[in-house]
Automatic annotation (TrEMBL):
Native source organism of the sequence: Cruoricaptor ignavus
PANTHER family named among the record's database cross-references: COBYRINIC ACID AC-DIAMIDE SYNTHASE (PTHR13696:SF99), P-LOOP CONTAINING NUCLEOSIDE TRIPHOSPHATE HYDROLASE (PTHR13696)
Pfam families on file: CbiA (PF01656)
Domain CobQ/CobB/MinD/ParA nucleotide binding: 3-84
Record InterPro entries: CobQ/CobB/MinD/ParA_Nub-bd_dom, DNA_Partitioning_ATPase, P-loop_NTPase
Stated name of the protein: ParA family protein
Domain of life the protein comes from: Bacteria
Amino acid sequence: MIVTISNQKGGVGKTTFAMAFANFLSLERGLTLTVFDYDYQKSFYTRWLRDSESLPEKEPLYEVINLVADAGRLVDTSEMLGNHDSSEIWLFDLAGTLDAAYLQLLKLTDAFVIPFEYSDLSTKSTAMFNAMLDECQFMGTRFYIKSRMDKGYRYPTQGTFDAYLKNAGVLIEAPLYKRNCMHKINTRTYPTDVKEATRETCIELISKMNTAFDTTF
């Protein structure tokens, strides 16, 4: 299965959730996966390397492969994707901007995991991302993650936007709230505070993915 964590706007917690979800799949579900950092900033890959130095006593939970060349050019993944075994879980972390290099990956993606916020900029960017997926006829199932929410705040556009997302794909109801613990997330552990902040979202996501794809992850 190819899972792509993406949206057209940066700053909505894509990489942070990608780390949490990868850790959940490895430690909570006992699954083997490979992560591909396809973001110009290389935040996931950089963190994974840094954790090798700062947490040497912890074995890597998964391999993270950097897909950004030294010159800042995105690596062509066509050949690699052609060799993908559908039984393998490949998790891609993409940049907040769309690049032509992503087209083959987006075409072959099984599950689009799309974190978003209820801000005006984020909802518009998410709608634009949906329109692009529709126009290009990318057939992967879309799963929308409510990210960086303020607990207790009533978002004026939430009801309308939720209805729109449910029509476009699968909305994950368990939100990700703004939590200080998420600033210290790493690629080697799934500590209690991070687990409390993300586990319900991850459980609902994997449950709805299992339903959509008739799998038992």
